[in-house]
Records
---
Amino acid sequence: MARVSTAAGIVGIFAGLWGVVCYTLSCSSSLASCPAMSAAPPGVSGTVYAVLAGLLVLSSLVTFVGPKSVFYASALLGLLIDVSEVMNYADIASGPFYVTLVLATLSVILGLLSARRGTAFSEQLHPMNLPVFG
């Protein structure tokens, strides 16, 4: 079974890449196929959404090698993407809107679980803490 922290990093990367791809698609076509442009607060371009998504990718990559506190940053970025999406959704939400919400919400939940999760062994029961004889 995969560890929660690994799953949090992978979901965060997918959520961020989804946001960057959506932004790129919506900027390169006349029809917005992803919710990137409508995700920004009124008066701000979809670039804010793309920056949040890019930062989510970077923070999720850092979670594989960095301290556990980086998971809080990933969770916060996922939450900001969720809030941005919900505040600026269209009257008729499309499939990509729901995909964005699911990925960002999973990133928040798994990030918080990973940041709060303790070690599997206590210090006394850890296998590397064997008694030394001699």
---
Amino acid sequence: MGIHVCNYCPPGGNPQNWYNHTSSGDVTLAFKSGHIWEMPDMLPHYMRDHNYHPPIELIEDLIFSELDLSDSFRLQTKGPQPQPIKVGYLEGSFETGEVSIAVIALLEYYMNKAQRNGDRQQTRSFTQQEPFVGTPK
């Protein structure tokens, strides 16, 4: 795996960014609502620094549902698997719109909590990286 550098930041990054413009993996978050989301760990950067608006269902999970850190949502070796909903470049679109700073902070909190629980996956590399379709700010 490698490091991904944001396709929308100028070389070397933007000193006005709120979040780091580099990444080395993806995060999977499962919620008690039943949704499982797979997203780049730079999602807060895309949201805050480039005005990316994730699916409304993810925002609703962040606000209204609890993070499920139990073993029940982890991918098992047998039986049917719930398929994660891909977000950001994993899905391939770049919808724009304002997202509350509180929602971004909650996403970052859940991502850090998942990392501490061992649910952060390094699943992409720089050479496999596909840019978003769309135009960020």
---
Amino acid sequence: MPIRIVTDSTADIPDDVAAELRITVIPAYINFGTVSLRDKIDISRPEFYRRLAAESVIPTTASPGVGEFEESYRAAGAPEATIVSIHPPARLSALYGTAVLAARSFPVGQITVVDSGQITMGMGWQVIAAARAARDNAPLETILDLVKATGPRSRVFAALDTFEYLRRSGRVGWAKMVVGTLLRIKPMIEFREGEVLPLDRVRTSHRARARLIELSESLMPLESLAVLHSNWPEGAEELRRHLTHVRLVDPLVTVDVTPVIGVHVGPRGLGVAVVHNARPGAPARGGLT
């Protein structure tokens, strides 16, 4: 029985990679008032960030319904195929819980739902690893072991332009405590084990970029690295240029992060999602697929 990989749009996997590896991507929802829009289908990411900055309505996010997950599993091949469904941490998003509910509509063992413990390309690299293994006809146990091994090696660091969006999201308690004294400070955060953790405080975008480079280099040798940005392609390109010397197994990619994260971090954020290499000296591959 073939194995297919399903995830959601918060994984930030480049469209061409998802298509090449036959990854089914379920779009998350962004709500502006009573209007619900599907990520990358009903609203582009640049358009989302334009509206985020221009409108007084604070957008919210939502998981697709159980029925949409069920339809996606069928589109991916269930029940003729076994499905591995990989999503953000349950403590951070309803996506995982919705996937679990949808899986109950299928025979036991047909759908395996995985809590990735990560967000954006920290999760995306796990999904890509699983999809490669599925393409190569690896057994289910091998695929799940691979995802489990990749998760702890995945790190996501980010530098935000302002505390404001993090504070008003209400999802990070420590942000409320420090925002009053750090109005001109650019916060640096790490996402780890389902939590957003304070990492550093810098005063300039230049220093934020330098710190992200330092963090990436400190974890070398690296298997994978993605440059992340929230509607700041110029900043992302500059960061990417300073990371081209890092030897990787996978090619360096750049992604504009999902609005599900953008609601909380705001525009002009930069970040990296890295997977440090458990096999030092592994030969470089020529492409993501």
